[in-house]
Records
---
Amino acid sequence: MEVSATRDLLLSLSEWVALHRLPGLETVAVVSNKTKGANVFAWDDRRGLLAVGRQKRLTVFRLDSGREFVEVKEFGVPDILKSMAWCGDNICLGIRREYMIINSMTGALTEVFSSGRIAPPLVVPLPTGELLLGKDNIGVFVDQNGKLIQDGRIIWSDTPASVVIHRPYAVARLPRHVEIRSLRAPNALVQTVVLRDVQKLVQTDNCILAALANSVHGLLPVPIGAQIVQLTASGEFEEALALCKLLPPEDSNLRAAKESSIHIRYGHFLFDSGSYEEAMEQFSDSHVDITYVLSLYPSIVLPQTHIIGEHDKLLDMHELARESSDATDEMESYSLQLHESDDKSPLEVKKMSHNALVALVKYLQKKRSGIIERATAEVTEEVVSGAVHHSLILSEPYKPKKPNKKRAQTHTSSIAREMATVLDTSLLQALILTGQSSGATELLKGLNYCDLKICEEFLKERSEYMVLLELYRSNEMHREALQLLNQLVEESKSEMENTDFNKKFNPQMIIEYLRPLCRSDPMLVLESSLYVLERNPSETIELFLSENVPADLVNSYLKQHAPNLQSTYLELMLSMSESGINPNLQNELVQLYLSEVLDWYKILKEEGSWTEKIYSPTRKKLISTLESNSGYNTDLLLKRLPQDALFEERAILYGKMNQHLRALSLYVHKLQMPERAVAYCDRVYEEGAQQPSKSNIYFNLLQIYLNPRKAEKEFEQKIIPVASQYPGIHKSSSAKFKGSRTGKKVVEIEGADDIRFSPSGTDSGRSDGDGDDASDGGPIMLNEALELLSQRWDRINGAQALRLLPRDTKLQDLVSFLEPLLRNSSEHLRNYLVIKNLIFRANLQDDLYKRRQAVVKIDGNSMCSLCNKRIANSAFAIYPNGQTLVHFVCFRESQQIKAVRGANSLKRR
């Protein structure tokens, strides 16, 4: 028999299957035709389907309108059915010594496994839709398709005759007793009820009925709350937690309290057993406060907070659990203490502590996201409320202030941040204690609430300087971090036994630390960069340039605090910056170079070893900077130059002022370096190739070589008007122009330091004199002049150069100058004529093409201009004006007449 509780019906199988109404047992329907002689049936109460096994046939019926059965399907099976049960759309069949799955729609059969050698097949449906199949004394769990479920096996003490399910237990009828086992792995034995020769087990809502030969026993379940207490007291925590899920929904608070209490006890048990990670999972599932878990770790230092102790919460939960059961005294008496470690070796204690801390790290990391999120939301809420309050104050300036009623809640509202502080501080310590320094660094790089004082002391004690630096950085304690870095770098330079320490800290770390501070706090960067600027100047300057630290600020700071590094900074900045540096800094660098060169010059002059061809490294830098840059103040530099030295620097400055004649005079007469003069001319010519006035620079050099007097006169013409603007400057030098002659005047003019020249002026001298005056100004440099003419013949006006040469110059000496010059002139002339003719021919072709494009229309009225007859279809000709038409015959005759007349006129002549 089987009861359909939802339909108030009773199904019974005797000679056939009958349907009765409850509670009166009136017969509703009888399936006598197809079920007579049946030995087993299975009822699907949800869908109203009935499967009946008769001999080797399986028939499926559907209950229609609650009054009669309608046959749906009928299938043949290999042998007589012993047991069966519905499992979804399938039916599990027990046939002789094996189990099979048949699809109720298609009839497809699938073998599962054999049922054993002793007991007949036993199919028991589970509330979850799965099946428990008997195989001798073993119960195997399978899904609806007959596939084995992992860890699904119940081992009975004997072969069961039948099994009923009463969640969460399976009750089996054995020959000598009734055995109760858990449905959860490892399916432990729960209870044994000594009842011999039980004929049948029947499941009801409240109990299980055990029918004997002459009596019926009711197996009543112990209340779930009491079972939970008993299982917890005996250490069966998994079973206790499973039973908590069976508590009524209306007891949700009681259920949560019991589950939390069991998780805590289970966590303590696992922690004492050395299963630290599993213990942390239990503590996490109990939703216990992290301070409760951290109390198990005395090595972790916690910050002072006002968080309510978790012990009080646990007492509240225990009090709630006490109201639900009389056996709570047993649970309250259960208390696990940490094992004494006196009898353990130091190695075991160390290993246990490390594993426990590793488990703590994972626990705190799992809890961290939620706690940090709440703390951040709390901060955001306070910022928003503060902004709103500030805006209200601004909008109502005359409203009297009222006392803040929420001030008393400030302590309560900071619980989330206090919890985050406890968590991050503990997590940092646990990471360091387990050797995870990189993890601690990553923690500090992100948003964190680590307690500064505790973490600082902890890291200093363990020399975790890298993590300590990140702690300072996260709290914007940059001065402390940089002081520590400087100290560590200094210590790493000294001879120490720990070579790894030496490799870990270097000046490059200071540069990398300063990089993000360049824009937020440039003054702090400058104050802290002196150390690395002395040891790694190039990297430090590159830092200033890449992060756009104001150059004027850097220069002024170095000028005040580290003047010896100022030139180094400006040099590197000039070499690294693609766009160069501003004129003020260029002038500053040149002035620094010049000051050092002047000091060096004074020392050599006092020693009597000064010559113009001595170059110190600084003088080379000065000359190179003067040549490659132009942002400095030439007037100030000329005033500082001595009159009797540093002529090369003076020549460069004159060149920057476009006083080319003076610069060339210095190269030729003072420095006696004609090759430098030629190079100077080349540079000026190439820079000003598009300016005709500068193309005479070579002629200026020729004047200096061949006509010093002429050059001197041009000096006077250019200098005296400029010097007149400064009447008080060096009058003695101006007076010498009138009374003295030849090369001394040039030298004195060149030594006039205080005379200023207009940068826009040029020395575009042009000689129109004869070669007779070439020797009036002193000895000429004919060889140098001839060499210049032979090397630069294509850049010099040949006629002017020949006019400037002395008359006694041999033509043979001018071959190297005149030959390429004349060849080049002839070639230019030929090229010009060729180009002229080509252009003329191109114009003729264009004209011919245009004339051939002309169109002439001949019609019936077209007349010949010679014979005045119609042209009609005759050959014709047209005159160049494009309008006059004639017969071709008339045109030819007229040409012959002209030819005859021309010949006659020639004979007459």
---
Amino acid sequence: MRVRDDGGVGEVTAPPQHLVFAYYITGHGFGHATRALEVVRHLVAAGHDVHVVTAAPEFVFTTEITSPCLHIRKVLLDCGAVQADALTVDRLASLEKYHQTAVVPRESILKTEVEWLNSIKADLVVSDVVPVACRAAADAGIRSVCVTNFSWDFIYAEYVVVAGHHHRSIVWQIAEDYSHCEFLLRLPGYCPMPAFRDVIDVPLVVRRLHKSRSEVRKELGIADDVKVVIFNFGGQPAGWELKKEWLPDGWLCLVCGASNTQELPPNFIKLAKDAYTPDLMAASDCMLGKIGYGTVSEALAYKLPFVFVRRDYFNEEPFLRNMLEHYQCGIEMIRRDLLTGHWKPYLLRAITLQPCYDGPINGGEVAAHILQDTAVGKKYISGKLSGARRLRDAIVLGYQLQRAPGRDVGIPDWYSLSEKETGVRPAHTSHDMNGNAESSFEDFEILHGDMQGLTDTMSFLKSLSGLAGNDPRSPEKQTRERAAASVLFDWEEEIYVARAPGRLDVMGGIADYSGSLVLQMPIREACHVAVQRSDPIKQKQWKHTQARQLANGGAVPVLQIVSFGSELSNRAPTFDMDLSDFMDGDKPISYDKAKEYFSLDPSQKWAAYVAGTIFVLMTELGVRFTDSMSILVSSSVPEGKGVSSSASVEVASMSAIAAAYGLNIAPRELALLCQKVENRVVGAPCGVMDQMTSACGEANKLLAMVCQPAEVKELVTIPTHIRFWGLDSGIRHSVGGTDYGSVRVGTYMGRKMIKCAASDILSESLSSCVPMQSGDPNPEEYEEHGVDLLKTEASMEYLCNLPPHRYEAVYAKDIPEVITGAAFLEKYGDHNDAVTQVDPKRSYCVKAPTRHPIYENFRVEAFKSLLTAAKTDEQLSALGELMYQCHYSYNACGLGSDGTDRLVNLVQEIQHRKTSRGGGPSLFGAKITGGGSGGSVCVIGKNCLRSSEEIFEIQRRYKAATGYLPIVFEGSSPGAGKFVYLKIRRRSA
């Protein structure tokens, strides 16, 4: 390699000996192949043989490299991320395909690759970024190097959270494979990659240009003064109809990857499949597409403004996005605007950008030189910013990314030093709900309401105060969500604040939708929502919202939402819409259309929980919103932990909106309306206990509610000698998941079967007009109550109204363990549940889901009665036993998980162990909560120091076994009905 006068790196020169490289390229996307091409080109130019192992089309390499030293071997050794469409990754399908591609045939893959590497006498294995290639190289006794900006263990780790614990071994195996790699050549825009022992940073790898801007435009017949956007989504997906009016007047669009049969408007130009994209990008004025390494690196290199649409569930994206925005090269387009053709404001804004990336773009040359030196035996010694130091940095960053809003996740003890060494500090932003609340509300005048001494409310007002004094043009780097929130409100006008807590399911759980009595405790963690209404002409608006208003011919009511915490997840931080989108003429659109509206963009589906409350108020109460609305959501209720984060958002949102618009809605009615948000707009088939607890609960009391549909029986004061805790298993829970929905379907199937059986028995009894035979079950009861009882059961609305003894005596024997959807529909017609559907192709467990709510209602009634019994260990033991029985019943329904079972087992071990202290146990029972399939467990114990110590012991033992430190939920707080609302206004200076 030679060094130019400007300090850059020239072409790679050949060493004394001829080298053989095996270059493995992942099966995910063109970006990996195109960047590998640039490294391979330099190695081949130096006279080396390069064997490329890939599933990418050959033309990607052969159109650029015409040399006998290039060898293409078509093999797929990993699958990357499986995409449902150009913008959506199917997380479960990705894990399952990787399992079939790389796990099932692993042994044969390793054997084949070792034999092949030895047959070509490879000097070095290069991987971008195929995990098994590193292990195969180690088995063959060959050094290996990875070249990448992300690794699959980091990408798949999030998928495992959603798809289930049984896929964890995939991530562990990938990380172990990478550990055989000698070092990592790390590209800009990188993710945390702690699996690699040593790291060398290289510049952007970018394909070179072949033609000038004017040459490309001349070939395409485009004048120099015509504005051109290149449409680059890695292949034009079916169903995206492009329309002439989507472009500004006089613009042209170059479409990459369009199908041969697709018809394009006259201002769209279809490019050839093998068109050389870098030349076309450099000849364009901006690009519209999705974020990937190839598009981002070349946009930066050629200073091309990039209008990007977020791709769901791909963790590489936030890091590349940050790089784009840092160099003033990127603008995010909302997916809804992409699909509906609202392109103009984004394109016009893009051409005003001034991309300023000035870093080197010769990463292909640099990487080829390092690979060549490594192949001849040179050792690249880690500098002070490499190796173990980088490993610590990456893990610290990884933990920072996984922080829950308002709750710091502890960095493991063995990495604690890196915090001081790297200068990384936990990100205590001004919306941290655990921050010091002193003087937190002094900037605001409270015109209505009382903070009730709630420190999290004080902290929320402090965060608002920080926004009010924030200058969005400040050079100080800030999160996108805070930048958006700082221009959300008019601080001289009134703002309405509501608060709604999450809940801990003490008893009742999934029996709520079957009409059970439930016992729920509102937890300390809560969601705060601030709402301001304004005249559409005066509302402060984001730039793309303003542009849409202008395009539509004037000011119309607009909804703008900012959600704090989006930086910690894969969702967009903002959402906006015209409120007229909810209307069809003078009536609201249907629930199905509203659900479809929010389903278009998974990264913004979270907005259904907030905006859905507005739609339900319009539909159910006839409210018409003629003002614009700005909403800020900040929740410390962690998502996916089974403590009802969604209900707290819904209840807080509707409460704040109701306050702002003077709507007097009782807490119970508000909870029922919020359930409609979840069922009909979000599409999650939950019962109503979550919303009822969040709206109607009181601190340190159990809400005793009969879910028929939602009648608060009483608020049960928790006895002072009893305490409840929630322990998070670390396994994400979702009531929108398949397990919860299929169990609910099975339950309603069972109810329908019982009702039909009761009708049949009743018909036989009435038609025979004779007493039932002595062999029939409970003949005396039939004689005395038979007809009326059977009529009641034949018209039964709630399964929990069937006593256990009646179920066992009359119906249990005829309820099947499992039935297919098709068989059920053929015999019974429908299961009569408005929020789920029977899939004819699926098999459903019926017996356990039917039995569970019948017995659970009995258990909850017993639990409630026992709470007032004498304060003895026997009382606590009985309460704990009822919780254990509930837990086992969940498992029988298929709603258990390894994590929740482990926590319950730890409680049992501690409860029954012999201790040197003597005395009885302090913990007495535990059960899975809410929808099951992960989430949290509820633990009951004595209200004493020893029980708290044992909870901490369970935390430590669970972490030792799983690597995850459970969050502990303890304490309680008032529901939204007790909090009411605050009306605030910023004090004038």
---
Amino acid sequence: MEILACRRPVLVSILRNRKFVKRCHTYSHNQQRSMSHIMQRRMDRNPLFKINNPQLSRHFAIMRVLSSVLKLRYLVIGSAVGGGVSVSKKYQEWKDSLPDLSWLEDIFPNNNITNTIQTSLKSILDTLQDIDFAKIVEDMSPIITKAATPNSKDYKQKLEISQQEIIEIQLRYQKELEKLEKENKELRKILLLAKNHKMNMRKVKKSLIDMYSELLDELNDYDSNYQTQDHLPRVIVIGDQSSGKTSVLEMIAQARIFPRGSGEMMTRAPVKVTLSEGPYHVAQFKDSAREFDLTKESELAELRKEVEARMKNSVSHGNSVSNEVISMTVRGPGLQRMVLVDLPGIISSVTQGMAPDTRECIRQMSTAYMSNPNAIILCIQDGSVDAERSNVTDLVSQIDPHGRRTILVLTKVDLAEKNMANAERVNKILSGSLFPMKALGYFAVITGKGNQNDSIDSIKEYEENFFRNSKLFRESIGISSQLTTRNLSMAVSDCFWKMVRETVEQQADSFKATRYNLETEWKNNFPRYLELDRDELFEKARGEVLNEVVNLSLVSAKDWEEQLSAELWNGISHYIIENVYLPAGYSVNQTNSTASFNTMVDIKLKQWAEEQLPRKSINIGWMVLKDMFKTMFEENQNQKLQASDEILETLKMAVIDEALKRHSWEDKALEMLRVIQLNTLEDRCIKDKHNWDQAAQFLTSTLENNLKVTDGLLKEMVGPSNYEKWFYWQSSTAEQTKRNNIKYELENLLHSNPNHSNLLSKDEQITISNNLKQKNGTPCELDDIWQTWYLVYRRHYFKIALENAQNIKKHFYHYQESNGLQNEYYDIEMFWRITRMIKVTANVLRQQITNRELRRLHKELKEVLDEYSQNIEMKCKLLTGRRVTLVEELNKVKQIQEKLEDFIQALNKEK
């Protein structure tokens, strides 16, 4: 199949032997010039020639006519003979290189397909055998004879007839060639369809051009600290805006795949198009599985919309062009295999709506792509405008001054002919003598008829008809191989693969050296670690984080309940003391009735348990779970610090924090906890000595802590004592001195009446104020008295309560004998209820944590890990450092090197 695919260039060269024709033309021209020089020298030397001799002038005119005829004769004879010999030789070589058709039996077990292919091949051979190349020369003999017979009257007419007949013969065999190419194309489609059917039953192998395209994608994403550059060839399509460069690419791809605009810039980002051969004409983006059928106009329209949308998305806010590459593959029967990159058109000035730096950005982008020493530059020049207005030719000549990898393409030549362009000027462009830039080849093409909706087939037909009938190119017989996009695509493909074969091994050697440098850096800097990339490190952290949840489930019930009980009391102690215990205790002093204490406690506890306590308890349980998880994680990390990987710590803590942030307690646990707490708080009977001692100890420690806090606040208010002033050289402020005097008066009041209520009467306030004024001579505000009284009375109450609590520690048996009917034990009963409520609540929360919340937390951790695993930015943020980037660079280089080696191996097999 590959042999059949490569025969079309041979068939094209059969009737286009340019070199021999050019040599004959040069020889004829030199002969004519030599004869003219000889005659001129003779005239200068011989004075007889200077005489006005009519007969001699007539003979001299005949000589000039014969010279012109000889020029034509040499041209025609050289073309015919040289073409015939070359055709015979090429045809014999091609015929001898055709493979034995028996190999088809191994691929196609279906005899019908084999017979079809054999019949098609036989028809191609028979058609070539029917061409009598010797007869071509015989057919041209009368033309030569006619052209060689000079006649002063109708010489020009015969000369034009001779040229027309030569062109008609050339076109006749051109049609035969096109017919053979179409049959070859259909045959290739049958072969590819059968091959695809066969390959569906086994592992599909990528084509050579697909391997190369993937290799370019890998290199495009690669970024190395060692500045290993991508020097693999690709075809860079560059030209002035609206010069037809995108249309040239579409003609090569044989499909209208790009969005179109009327004079406005449509290409806003580089588009990499990989052309490959396939049974169906389809297009597919690199990052998408969808295939667009290019034979259907509806899917072509969708493809153009998708290209336009991708270009708009790639352009960031405020810019007009983007460096982000859009990669796509176009497959179809008869397509030349190569990789082309379509760049935004070169502009002369920035128009309204464009970013101010658009012109410079396009030039920098074009320069960057063309600076690749192995990139083939397809320079597109609009043939309908003056060559002096070209911007792209100057830019290309700066990058490739010797033209070793540049191909100039002249577009819109039909408009040039319509505008009566000078044929000699066009010929100078195609010969490379007009522009200062140099190039490997020069081509003239037509990529449209003026209507955006014209199909590729209609444009190709229009292009062939134009060059067949064009007056502008009719006189230039020797440039026929430089016309049409078909000849252009074959020439570009040949140049592309030649460049690939010459450079791919050099690129492989470059990556071998880069790999060695990276491996050496790893051995010197990280000898104790495995080469784990970012994804592998993430998976390692995933396992460690999930193991921490398992370790959390191993915590004993006792540890859970102790931690929960401590945090519960810390969370509710302020409310219990300030809103329940002290108001109820103060009421006893006011009413001298202990029954009011129990009544107020029952009301406040029930209201609190119904409204605030369950939610508060759940929040405390969640905080305990969070703190326990983090504490255990940090302890485990400290214990295995030598074996742990410090690079994972940031990631693991971020995952744990995010999971705990998302975690919420089950709603159904709230109502259940409310019922349990209400029932527990209603039981005030202490049944055994152990519980009594616990409640007494809890009451005593609570009162001691509150007394200590109150003493600290009061000391801060009144300043240092006399002892501290003498031995520690401390002093009091004026405010502290005033507060100390107030405190002294209030303590005297409480000393005289220890059962005083928590409120001061108005008379008492006035008395204290007058006493302070008489003793110290300074007035005292009532607010100052009230603030000091609050702390003084609070300390006084805690002292009395603490004395009572210490006294009733040993009264359990008395309490038991009275069956709890003695009212003097009201405070210990209250704290027993609080103690039991905390214990039951801690037990319920512990069961909820171990039975439900840990499993839900484990699930949430997995969800966070799954989200982070798909978030590349998050992984890059949490897993950083040279160790990570070095491994990724090393793996990338290894992957590219393997692809390069596989491609070189496949390339050598094809060769």
